[in-house]
Design goal:
347 residues; alpha+beta; Jelly Rolls; 2 domains; 6-stranded antiparallel sheet; 8 helices; globular; binds 2,5-dihydroxybenzoic acid; oxidoreductase; Gentisate 1,2-dioxygenase
Length: 347
Amino acid sequence: MDGASTRNNARRDFYERIDGLSMAPLWESLHQLVPPSPAPKYVPVAWDYDKVRPFLMESGSLITAKEAVRRVLILENPALRGTACTTPTLYAGLQLILPGEVAPSHRHTQSALRFIVEGEGAYTAVDGERTIMHEGDFVITPTWTWHDHGNDSSRPMVWLDGLDIPLVALFNAGFAENGETDEQPITTPPGTSDAKFASGLLPVDWKPTRQTSPIFNYPYARTREALHGLKKAGPPDACHGYKLRYVNPANGGSPMATMGTFMQLLPQGFETAPYRSTDGTVFSVVEGEGESRVGDQVFRWKKRDHFVVPSWARVVHKADSEAVLFSFSDRPVQERLDLWREDRSGR
Ligand code: GTQ
């Protein structure tokens, strides 16, 4: 036996002996543990709404919203099957609620966002107030707030659920409880939180008690108007087109501590400069048609399609017609931890 194999055998033997003590040699895995740049173990993926919708509707005949509690098809990353993860930190799913149904009241420490994909007229109630939802609206149900959903309209409603389920699981900080009634008692007239907090004004003696935004519906009509105002005001950003982030008006931060949410407008024919950042991101197409190159994959998309851009994957969006993209990520968490990075060198 040569010197190298004698040494390797001695090392293997050593590893086996320390294995029984629940110990392992760092030097065998150091490079993976501390990579020179992010090496995500999940992949770019897209869901074509034309293919997804029939299954979503079929689920509506298999189980009621009440029995399911939440009737959702999880958008699971192909590299993370069986984990309910869309990215390693975020969960995403498409929730269906049919006319007359109620998704019963509960609360949990996981924060949730709703992004309305199809239909209008259903409501979400959060801590005693209801909001009627329309396509493109962004609605939050922050950590530990009571929430239920109901559809008093005549059409099915579908929205994208985004939750921090994997993050909360990582911390083992999950708590949940069910409401006493399916629909929580309504204590506040609709429009109250909007009136108090959504006009660049705050009630004079109001003090925030948590990081969460006091606004719980950010309607698309206003977001759209803002994007179009931006477009009139100047040239697009090379990497983003016209991109805005949703904000908690009380502190300038994200509406919820764990998830950042964004809306961007890409003018017709616009192609973004290559861009990457460390926050793996879930996109929902709101308007228009185009394609995104994510790493070496190309996803064609149109209204209501969804796709994932993993951490540090280069992305280029191209809009064939004027397009609007909603997206969410764990960016605020990474920023708080001084971890978030971007690379605009493709600009
Ligand atoms: O609406 O509370 O998609 O608790 C997954 C878990 C939605 C919700 C989901 C949930 C909810």
